[in-house]
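Comment thread on ticket #2218

A.B. wrote:
> Attaching the input chain for the structure job we discussed in standup.
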Amino acid sequence: MQNRELVIIGGGPAGLSAAVEARRLGIKDVLVIDRESEPGGILKQCIHPGFGLHIFKEELTGPEYAERFVREAKNLGVEIMLDTMAIELTADKRIIAVNSQEGLIEIQAKAVILAMGCRERTRGAINIPGFRPAGVFTAGTAQRFVNIEGYMPGREIVILGSGDIGLIMARRLTLEGAKVRCVVEIMPYSNGLTRNIVQCLEDYDIPLLLKHTVVNIHGRKRVEGVTIAEVDDNMKPIMETAKFIPCDTLLLSVGLIPENELSRMAEIQIDEVTGGPVVNQRMETSVPGIFACGNVLHVHDLVDFVTREAILAARGAASYLADSDKKYDYVPVVAGDGLRYVLPHRINIEAMPEKRQTFFMRSVKPMAKARLSIESEKGVIKSRVMRYVKPSEMLSIPIDRDEMKGIKILKFNLQEEGDSVERGE
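C.D. wrote:
> Ran it. Output below, let me know if you need it in another format.
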């Protein structure tokens, strides 16, 4: 049995950011457990630019962004245990891990930060009919093949889903000489960042077919083509519109799922909408002393937001280690009209680590202009007009601690507005 002060499960951007902040806060014993052979998580294969604009005020590739935190973690004396899989977590913060050198490892932690990231939704999760030929990949798997392993998944590509990884791979495969025939999206709007729609599809004349889906995969040994069709308002295929597209590869970019098997083992309360733990303002889950940040909490569109969240989790862990017996009363945070969810799920105003709290949320549909209003039982606290809102791009708003003093509930609403509304608060 090893006794450790702070254990972080996951060595991607969330875990590394939390480890660095924890060491800066004076936590001497910080252990990061990661199942990969090198730290950095998914960023190792994200060789495109666009990272770090918020945190470092400059544009970096994924490996460059990760390397800054890897280097800082090592300089600060963070212990990183690689090639190690955490297979069990209990509510009393006992971790069982395994690797090829030490076998079964048992660790008792005083505090734990969950930073396991997320996984891709597969073909089995969306039930596409057809055979099971070679040539069907998730977009992230194809990205690893091309950017790290040096293999091309195919030459004639159809991409199902317009998530950011799929959009980025449309450009990447085109640059490597493949023909991306189209990106097919079942929703009436794209699920990727606007900049990726422009830079990865429009700049390369790759068609984006909205309100379409794949209804069949053809081929026994290798993909020979797919049949796509339009969908109605209930997302049911309109078979009269079906058409065959020849291709040798189908990439799936149909969503990400937070990796919360360990969270459920520890009996942590899970939000059914986000798929991640329910947390308070310091990223603490329903189990005291266990914190969560990054894509294990909710799927992010920008890694800079992951880092900011990880910093909050590290500060929360430091506060817990300093005074683990302190109890708080919490104010519930409610996602009202127009919003899928709001994080954090509950707050204690007095225990906020800073003078203001930033709330993150996603809309239920695209809106050209919308008014975000935050209200309590006393009335509206804050109101702001937002433009070009879409579910794929996370919204955030800071609220000062003084604005929330004495409240018993905090409710967020997002309502579509007409052109007569002026920008501002």
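A.B. wrote:
> Thanks. Noting for the ticket: The CA atoms of residues 160 and 184 lie 5 Å apart.
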